[in-house]
Amino acid sequence: MDFIELIKQYPIEGSALISTIAASLGWIARNIAQLLLERSKYWREQRTFFWKEKINAAKKASEFYLEYLNLLNLMIIQFNLYKNGKIGHDTLISSIDQEVNFYNNRIKQFPHFEHHHINLFYDFNEKDNLKTVNENLEVLQKVTEMINSENPDDDSIKIEFEKINTNYIKLYDNYFSYIKIVREDLKRYL
Questions:
Q1: Phi-psi region for residue 180, left (φ > 0), alpha (ψ -120 to 50) or beta?
Q2: 124 vs 121: CA distance, rounded Å
Q3: Are 93 and 81 in contact (CB under 8 A)?
Q4: How many other C-beta atoms are found inside a 10 Å radius of the C-beta of residue 71?
Q5: Residue 3 lies in a domain
Q6: How many separate domains does the chain show?
Q7: Could you tell me the residue range of the domain that residue 122 belongs to?
């Protein structure tokens, strides 16, 4: 016996069966569609949250890096003044000390230290920066010893200060490149 003949023979049961099958298929389709919409909404919300966090981290890191770049730029200017003979090493050291103290206090009073969150999104090579900073500390110790010696050699001191200046330029370029990387990445998605 064929399905259509069965329905003709039992019209009430056949109609109920067809209605049940249609309702079941409709219910399954509706639930699958709802599940797909919810999953799509979830991933869209995840991407939105991710980008909000990335943009906030980029803003905070950029603010911090720009403050640090200002400090490095002032240092480079001081070293260039020293190199051009506009100021002596005593003036250079006191100027750097004042600028470092000013920016040290300014960065300490920075409203947030969430700028480190940028490292969740980008792999910046901080090892090179740390190496450069440590190298500067060693050179500064050497310069201090040279200045405090009985016969300080101005040419040797200038050479050492040039090493520090070169390192500050390297740090400046590194941090500026970080800002450029973040900007380029954000431009692609905005």
A1: alpha
A2: 9
A3: no
A4: 20
A5: no
A6: 1
A7: 55-189
